Sequence to fold (181 residues):
Amino acid sequence: MRFVEIEICGLTRKFPVVSMGPKLQVVSVSLLGDVELVEIVSKELVERIMTWRPEVLVGPETKVVPLLQKMSEIMHLPRYVVCRKGIQAYMIDPLVVEPKETRTSRVKAMAIDGRDGKYLQGKRTVVIDDVVFTGGSFAMVRQLLDKAGADYVGMAAVFKQGDKFGESYEYLQELPVFDSV
Fold:
């Protein structure tokens, strides 16, 4: 397996390069378990979004959860919301969105508990993600925020990967994309 060394916020990490099909390879990042990396990038992202005055952070499960937790702690926010990939048994009156292209999407639906939807209503909300590649997860989170009546004020991510996603957002570092040989 091939690895790429990435420096971010003064830390160096080696991430694997994985295939995303016959013609594309990407750097695979996971924040899960890397306490030091989560701590440092959380502080930097908080600095970049503070002028937006967020009242709640929202992100897609699972790898972004430690980031949501740490950033919310730093900002003294009482709560954050995780969008789940599908309806979960614990959800009461869930808000659900379906991807536009079901044939190419790995995610069949994205949902939040109805209680989270009520919590988001009217609140200044920032979407947080670990890596933004195509923007598919972001689009579904935005749809959920719209359904909930949240006041979307911006998006931030640790990494930007490629240029398939054209919307403006804050990010800390770019990741390479490779053509498969």
